Amino acid sequence: MAHIVIDTCGGREAGAEALEAAAIASLQLDHQLTLVGDETELTGKLARIAHDAERLRVAHAGDPVDPDQPLRVALAARNSVTVGLELLARDPAAVFISAGPPGLIVGAALRTLGRIPSVGHAALAAVYPTLRPHGPASDPFALLLDVGATVQCSSEDLVTFAAMGAAYASKISSIERPRVALLSNGTATAGAPPRVRDAHRRLLQGPPGFEYVGCLRADHVTSGDADVIVTDGFTGDVLLRTLEGIAATGELLIKRAAERFQWRLGVQMLGDGIAAIREFTDWENYGGAPLLGVDRAVIVTQANSGRRAFLNAIRLGVKIDRLQVLAAVATGVAALRSKEA
Amino acid sequence: MNGHDEHDEHDEHDEHDEHDEHDEHDEHDEHDEHDEHDEPKQAPTPATELISEDLTPDEAATEELTPEVAPPKVISPEVISPEVVSPEVVSPGAITPTQVAPRRLVHLRWDLDKTYLQTNFDSVKDLVKTFWQKPEDKATVAGAQALLQSLMDPADRPNRRVTFISGSPRQMRKVLMRKLCLDGVEPDMFILKPNLENLLRGRFRALRGQVGYKLKALLLSHMAAEAVDEYLFGDDAEQDAFIYSLYADILSGQVDAVRMAAILTTCKVYRHDVDEIMAYHKQLAGSGDVVRRIFIHLDRRSPLDRFAAYGARVVAIYNYFQCAVLLFDAGLLSARGLVGVLAAMAAAGYTPERVANSVQDLMRRGFVQPPAIAKISEALDEAERTADPPAERPARYFMQKFEEVVAGLSELTRSPPPWELDINYLGLYHEARFHRQQHRWLGIRLLD
Predict the structure, then answer these.
(1) CATH architecture group of domain A1-119+293-323
(2) Do the two domains A1-119+293-323 and A121-285 of this chain adopt the same fold?
(3) Most buried among A103, A147, B138, B147, using CB within 10 Å?
(4) Which pLDDT belongs to residue A200?
(5) Are A58 and B356 in contact (CB < 8 Å)?
(6) Sign (positive/negative) of CA torsion B243, B245, B250, B255?
(7) List of residues 6+ apart from A140 with CB closer than 8 A
(8) Is the whole-model pTM more than 0.90?
(9) How far is CA A269 from the centre of its chain?
(10) What is this model's ipTM?
(11) Nearest CB neighbour to A23, from listed B354, B411, B447
């Protein structure tokens, strides 16, 4: 049985939707849930919605999370992120889910939790939809890491990220030998920065547990040629935001098209197809980005996550616990190190 | 058993014949009927006369059906409770669980389906299945049997009464009695709903409606002993919180006749039942504030706010350990009884986390304070150490979880919720009706 620790101070409607997702999970899933936030406020809100108190517990965190606060001050406060991560540190079976500021979550996680042996930096791994399905379960999502945890990476970090991402994908998407690529500005490494060139050279030596398919340009990211794409935190974050921005723009264009009567008819006729695309590209279906490299499961969801996003994050957390994903990630990194040695 | 059943049926028919005409008028011409009912009616036999220690459940139920032929059996308070406490008028707000004297006569009133038994009658198929289910196949709600057995411990039995008032049809009495017998529970009274009678007389509203039936049964079986504490157990599938609170307020004199009549009319109770209830109201209104707690088992996991309007007297519970904790705090349940409930719940698959979560829930709602949890832990420890034979599952692990829960919230002080002195029953009825209609037409919304 997994123990899901949910930060109820982040997400849509000041955390109300995170609370609702937890309440639904308490009614539908047989797992222990701990809500972190202001106890008085949470108890009052819980009384208004159906939930199963046998599966819910509240941990009090009196200080608010302020995104504008300096990281040092936020890390010293008793806010929902720091208290939640303390709970996580005490329970190896726990999974922490938060829509708080990613910088604070990563900073607090690195300070409070232990690291997987021989991992220098942590990586946030986000999933995004691709044209080609992945694995035996035809998973439409591919993994992109890092998307913001480590802004400046070395080649060592990129190789480690590749091993961690591959181990994660092999468990979550049941892919026996995931195809891993490095994000670059071309398939040749001549124009790539030194860290990418070096990582490329090391990965070409045949890493254990995954297949290295070389460098991949950004326009091929959504093709599905690779199951895992590795990059540094800065580039990954920019790429992910670009993909989300394009999806949001497409959505907006469809809405605008419906302003004219003839176009509205067309949109109506294409309704099912548009709904399918919307479903396919909706980030709320992804379930958040796991933070890989720490010895506990941490899932970071978007700041404006709603009920569905949190529910999917909870399901992802349960899956991570059930499939022992963190142990697999540690094994993957250890295998890489022993091969390199 | 069969003999009793036949007798019941016979009595039922006698009663039907007497009131058939009235009911027809109920359906067709209410105004005319008002005039008819203006003439004085014979008041039903006082409830005091119907309760006896010697009554078997069947006899009790038989007498419930035929109040006019019941021999008057008045029990003096001395016989019921040798250590009876003189009745004192205590305002509901002033009552706290710890102030209740433990040796008073305690009357436990239980609903059956979804409160004591795990019953599913949401569809016709389920209803039929339930009807034909064998006694040994009927399952109890985790911890309910252990709790009831602990409350009816032989040492306390002379001071305890237990009544079951169920919406199940009378035809199920044999099966249900057999089930209770298998569970080692011996009720003093067992009242079932005359559904066949209602069907034959075309009283279709009464088939589903509970207010008229349960209120009448509660008032009829009320013990007018001077020192009695009543604890009522129901669930959120029906209107138990509403009916039980109304009953409690009738006894404490909070609901006058005019308001009572308005409530019954709004609840669409049949005139025949209204007349009977009003007669009981006349006799029992203001007879004593005896209802100490109303426990509502959240079988449907309804939002807690739905019961907030009833005040602290109504405690919505997720499981029977919560109930056991409150009864232990009130001095009604022994530490061994608490261990028994815990053991039964562990056997039903409850993990220490789930139990600790429910204890925390009580704490957060202000029903239990952190010192009480420490007291419970001590009592569990003591009971486990002195258990013979030793408890199968050590309570130590549960206690450890309780302490974790308390440690997390020890700095927070939560005052118990207020006792509601003036419950707006009409408003609550309409609100519940609105919810039901919304569910019927729009489906049950998530988290509603």
Answers:
(1) 3-Layer(aba) Sandwich (3.40)
(2) yes
(3) B147
(4) 94
(5) no
(6) negative
(7) A129, A130, A133, A134, A280
(8) no
(9) 35
(10) 0.86
(11) B447
